[in-house]
Description:
By secondary structure, chain A is of the alpha+beta class. Chain A has helices at 19-29, 55-68, 82-91, and strands at 2-8, 14-17, 34-39, 45-51, 94-100, 103-104, 110-116, 122-131. In chain A, the strands form 2 sheets. Chain A has a 5-stranded antiparallel β-sheet, with helices on one face. A 3-stranded antiparallel β-sheet of chain A has the order 2-7-4. Chain A is globular.
Amino acid sequence: MLETMEIESSKRIELLDITSQVNAVIQKSGISEGICLLHVPHTTAGITINENADPDVSHDILEMTGRLIPRDENYAHLEGNSDSHIKSSLFGTTIDLIINNGKLLLGRWQCLYFCEFDGPRSRSLYIKIISG
Amino acid sequence: MLETMEIESSKRIELLDITSQVNAVIQKSGISEGICLLHVPHTTAGITINENADPDVSHDILEMTGRLIPRDENYAHLEGNSDSHIKSSLFGTTIDLIINNGKLLLGRWQCLYFCEFDGPRSRSLYIKIISG
Amino acid sequence: MLETMEIESSKRIELLDITSQVNAVIQKSGISEGICLLHVPHTTAGITINENADPDVSHDILEMTGRLIPRDENYAHLEGNSDSHIKSSLFGTTIDLIINNGKLLLGRWQCLYFCEFDGPRSRSLYIKIISG
């Protein structure tokens, strides 16, 4: 099963918790055990897993990576978003997760984040679900 | 097949070679060709592949990433482990490997490392094995 | 289906667009829907997805990561390529992609890059294709 999910970001840089939306797609598929491959089809966005209990964690992730990879540097690419492309490659644009009991198998403190690095924009996420 | 492996770390930050333990789980499954999805269900740990021949390589990986993402910075999160959360997202918490001839297909110099970024702790690793 | 692809790099550090070569392997497999697991069996190389329309993007990715992780630092590993090992773990050596209509499902601006961090060398890429 292959599905496309739509995501709307509202800031230039933010982490959006998409765990429940992805779980809804898995539930619709009716598959209870298997794997779920997620692919962000953009070059200035990414996907990651981290804590969502304390919003300060995502704040620190974005703040520190923004300090390491600043927006305004002596970049060659003239669109003003080289920082976003670099972050996309370091965070990654694909992730493969285990489906257990009809939903994503995640740790107690983990959630799935769509990483917006050059928003606000309308974004997509490809979701491939395989039973097994 | 879904299995949980237990890992004990002994330092705050270290790379633990778990290749043979994961291979033992694959052997137990009896599956000779397929894929093996590994998921670290923690937000201050990760998983990576690198060289294990010279221990200086893991030393340099941890030393340089610790210099880029220091423990003591002006972080918002008050638990003192924002560096661990950031590293978790940059190294990643999932990896998907090929099973060939009943074990992980790795390069000659590669081994699989569990990345402890906020130990010592008792950790888990989810292992999903799919034949194919 | 498991295949090994050969790659020749020509610089110490470069991103090589391997999208069409991987698509050729998928086409040969005859599989139109499924997943494609790519694994770089080296510890000083990696794999990533990013833009290939403007070559300045790959230039900026390599330039900025080279500034963050310089070749000449006070490293313990004596082979002079600790920077390459560190980048290998941060970019990653595996990626899992969706096969749709007999080829890789990628975004409009995305291509698949083999990341050479310690060339020029003869390199390999493992490709595992699963129908589903």
